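Hello,

I think I submitted the 2-oxoadipic acid job twice by accident. Can you confirm which output corresponds to this input? Input:
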Amino acid sequence: MSHFLNPDEIRSRFSALMSDMYQKEVPLYGDLISLVSDVNKSVLEKSPEIKNQLTQTGELPRLDLERHGAIRLGKAEELFTIRRVFAVMGMFPVGYYDLAPAGVPVHSTAFRAIEAESLNKSPFRIFTSLLRLELIDNEELRQTATNILANRNIFTDKAIELTEKSEQQGGLSAEDAEIFVQEVLETFRWHKEAAVSKDIYQALHDQHRLIADVVAFKGPHINHLTPRTLDIDEVQIGMSKRGIPPKEIIEGPPRRNCPILLRQTSFKALEEAVSFIDADNKVDGSHTARFGEIEQRGIALTAKGRALYDELLNKTRIATKGQRIEDNPDAYMTVLSKTFEPFPDTYLELQAQDLAYFYYYPVEGAKPNKTVSIADLPQLLNDGLIRIEPIVYEDFLPVSAAGIFQSNLGGTAQKHYDESSNRTAFEEALGAKVQDELALYAATQKASIDACLAALNKV
Ligand code: OOG
Ligand code: NI
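Support: Only one job matched these inputs. Its output is below.
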């Protein structure tokens, strides 16, 4: 028995603290949580099949825990250190997302648990972006931003000390872990006092709102948290009814019988009072960055399924080009649904066409009349000796993320960056390679198939 607290417990504790802090900082987020919880309760009451599915895959107990957050970092050292901090909580970088093509000067990864069992204990993850200062075209401003960031330290001494202790001894005691989560929380706290003068804020803001959000503040405040809903359309309608101002459209795929990947919406970021420091005087101003988001997660797609998704989303974009989607969300949703018609919408078809990842289970009492192998899966499925359940998508979608960024930075100005994506530089800053999310789903599926076949061959 190890005397260290399980990293899943540390993450779970941290996620609860973060949620409490954010509900205090942004009370509207608390309203969103109660809306989501009401909607989830009613879906579970109305749809026993959804309830069974979530029970079978182990996701039911974590439903009300489900949330992700997002932060934006300013320099390579911050990304490097945050990787070490998150590792203490069992969160590892998965996936590389380049947002520059969508006009947002960052690249990102998601820190999350890897094993299905750990994810079920605490699914908390943090979408973590690193600002790409090289995309600031004004050289003088780039230098100013670099200098400001060079001087900041976003971690408490104690957080670093305990991270090192954990690295050295291979974990943290319950006592240390409690101090650790409190100290790490400090990094994500909102600071009303900006770190710069109003003029500098304005200059950064004129380059890109996101640059001001990262550079002008003392630390990477958590900019949103996201509960998981079982019916995002219902939440979208409910938001308006409860006086929570929603973003106009739901990002991602259309509503379907078999949800795929991830659908997301949010309430619009708040304009908040801040103070700037001008030659020792405080000057009042405002900043818009923090919001609340909702996600509905569906099945993880294989590379083939993902290619089909990207193709159909692209077709939708071409078909709605020139229309201001915000002005006519219903028309957009109609085109989206129509365009996605070729995407099979039963789990059996998704499985047969190798479009998505599944768990495989032997049906109770099933007795095949020979030793079975992976090649027999279609027959076993057909004969009703095994069943499948969807493996939920745990990651993010760059086009959706860009849509979320855009609608929450205020304004509609679109930037265009020529710079090509730079995964190598990102991984250098991170000090590690990001894991390939598809390989993780494939491994989960494989483990499930192996266990299923072993169980059938034993009887
Ligand atoms: C991150 C936006 C991405 C999501 O859910 O796709 C994201 C940000 O605004 O910093 O959180
Ligand atoms: Ni998000």
